[in-house]
Amino acid sequence: MSIGVWILGDQLSENQSALQSCGDTKNLPIILIESLNHIKIRKYHKQKLVLVWSAMRHFAAELQDKGYAVTYQESEDFITALKTWVTENKITELRVMTPNDKPFLQTIQNLNLSCKIILIPNNQFLWSREEFSEWAKTRKSLLMEDFYRQGRRKFSILMDNNKPVGDKWNFDQENRKPPKGKLNTPSAKWFTPDAITTEVINKVKSLSDDLTYGKVDNFTWGINRQQALEILDWFITYRLPNFGTYQDAMVTGENTLWHALLSPYFNLGLLQPLEVIQAAEQAFYQHQLPLNSVEGFIRQVLGWREYMYGVYHFVEEEYKELNYFNHTQPLPEFFWTGKTEMNCLKQIFQQIENTGYAHHIQRLMVLSNFSLIAGLSPQEVESWFHAVFIDAYDWVMQTNVIGMGLFADGGILASKPYGASANYINKMSDYCQSCVYNHKEKFGENACPFNFFYWHFLYQHREKLQKQGRMSFILKNLDKMSTAELESICQQAEGWHERETN
Ligand SMILES: Cc1cc2nc3c(=O)[nH]c(=O)nc-3n(C[C@H](O)[C@H](O)[C@H](O)COP(=O)(O)OP(=O)(O)OC[C@H]3O[C@@H](n4cnc5c(N)ncnc54)[C@H](O)[C@@H]3O)c2cc1C
Ligand code: SF4
After folding, report:
1. Which end of the chain has fewer surrounding CB within 10 Å, N or C?
2. For range 23-50, the mean pLDDT
């Protein structure tokens, strides 16, 4: 029997299960494939393509240096490259770690190869799919907070015997400080592209604009495990101490604030969740870092990230098509061009075009929020998110966009829709200060679209929203509105789409 391993582009770890399953096999044949057809399924941010392909090339070189027999193939499709490699290496058993994304599993299952294909259970997450399913099956609702607490116990993170350190599981209340005055944000760690990355940048630049989005000349992301570890170290030293306090803040020109910038590396397998969580925990004990920051960060990785992956594999295939509010408005063209007068959106579109990155609150409370209250089609929005972010993958996008951002799953994941008016954006950012719209006005020529859309959304979906207990307070405010005010709001919201699409 001759075994070979196919390493997918988001499985770039020596600890990944397919490699591990082969033990110390000398000269183990390994293949990595850059497929052009694969990137024709949807648009990708140019920097994402550079990141993935450069990281694959660097990883292949590292494995080669360690004595593996690595084939790195640039190809039109996977099957042609695989067939040639299987024949040339007389492979009888191809091992692949089960992909994170469901569509890719389908791709593997549809391969017609002369050898056996063995899928090795994925070990890139702390909770296996089976463990998550065991946890989820016993519950009435899939509350993230319950899952997170279970994770703290299971992996003994920030625990004092059976109690959470600091006597509280969650310090979120302390992590919502609005940005006021000069913030003295720490710099972020970036890298100058090396020869391999420069070659990939040139390849990506040569691709048709129909396949790609965004700018690439300013690419400064890390591209291998060594650089990912340096970014982790930088984050722990300079950013983690204040991560919590301004976690929800948004400031013009401050694209990253105290955020970790680690998602691209996690999602490629260059960093393992437990090593990152333990590094943060160790810094807490060694340097007495504020608990609200350390707990807040650990909750993102041990809680939200694992939870999103678990839910993605737990729910049915139809999840991606859900549309609880029956929203069908098409995605406005300005999502691609960035040409809008709404300053909050404009700033974030520019940032994404330049870097492929926006932080969580920008994604949730501006981009998704607008898409939700303006009634945009969840599937079109999800597709857009997938195309423009550096860290986008099916497993993380579906749950975050369809579930968390747009509530299109009717509450499988979130306990209420994250809809908000300009009031929230004005409180948590400086965007409204330089906007042509007035964040206080609900309707009229200068009214902020977030306002008339918000109230129109509440009005339109009153019945469904009433079922969410946490919405009753805000619905009372809707009841206080006069009929004339409501009519003006609805007219303006409905007219907006007509104007936008004509
Ligand atoms: C609508 C929407 C779309 C999103 N799309 C993606 C995506 O395509 N890829 C992606 O990795 N994350 C996505 N997220 C989650 C989160 O916004 C990003 O992980 C985070 O902004 C990445 O930046 P960071 O590393 O600086 O994160 P930090 O704010 O510093 O958080 C630390 C880490 O926690 C993890 N994390 C936090 N929240 C989540 C979450 N909700 N889901 C999964 N992981 C989480 C990430 O790995 C992140 O690196 C999305 C969130 C929303 C609301
Ligand atoms: S006024 Fe409205 S559109 Fe303008 S920045 Fe504020 S929330 Fe955004």
Report:
1. C
2. 93
Ligand 2: atom nearest CA of 425 is 7
The reported pLDDT for the residue numbered 393 is 97
List domains and CATH numbers for the chain.
Answer: 3-120 (3.40.50.620), 129-314 (1.25.40.80), 321-501 (1.10.579.10)
Comparing CA positions, the residue from 204, 209, 193, 214 lying closest to residue 34 is 204
pLDDT at 351: 98
Residue at token pair 């306990």: 415
- Taking the CA atoms of 207, 213, 219 and 225 in sequence, report the sign of the dihedral they define: negative
CA of 365 to the centre of ligand 2 (A): 12
Pocket test for ligand 1, best of 255, 360, 394 (most atoms within 8 A of CB): 360
Distances (CA, A) of 148 to 106, 142, 185, 407: 30, 11, 29, 21
Q: How many CB atoms lie within 10 A of CB 219?
A: 24
What's the pLDDT band for 502 if we cut at 50, 70, 90? low
For residue 61, the one-letter residue type is: A
Nearest CA residue ID for atom 1, ligand 2: 439
Angle between helices 306-314 and 144-154 in degrees, nearest 10: 120
- In contact, 432 and 344? CB cutoff 8 Å: yes
CA angle, 406 then 258 then 286, to 5°: 120
pLDDT-based confidence at residue 387 (cuts at 50, 70, 90): very high
Which residue's C-alpha comes closest to atom 50 of ligand 1?
400
Nearest residue (by CA) to ligand 2, atom 8, is 344
Whether the CB-CB separation of 451 and 481 falls below 8 Å is answered with no
Q: Using the atom order of ligand 2, give the atom closest to the CA of residue 431.
A: 5
Looking at residue 387, what DSSP letter applies?
A: H
Provide residues with CB under 6 Å of ligand 1. 259-263, 266-267, 300-301, 304-305, 308, 359-360, 363-364, 368, 385, 389, 391-392, 396-397, 400-401, 404-405
Rounded mean pLDDT, 35-53:
94
Residue 339, number of CB atoms within 10 A of its CB:
10
Dihedral sign from CA coordinates of 245, 247, 248, 251: positive
Per-residue model confidence as pLDDT tens digits over 182-212: 889 999 999 999 999 999 999 999 999 999 9
Q: Could you tell me which of 217, 229, 158 has the C-alpha nearest to residue 189?
A: 229
Distance CA 351, CA 373 (A): 22
407 sits in which H/E element:
none
**Residue at token pair 């060694």:** 286
Mean of pLDDT values over 92-116? 96
Per-residue model confidence (pLDDT) at position 491: 96
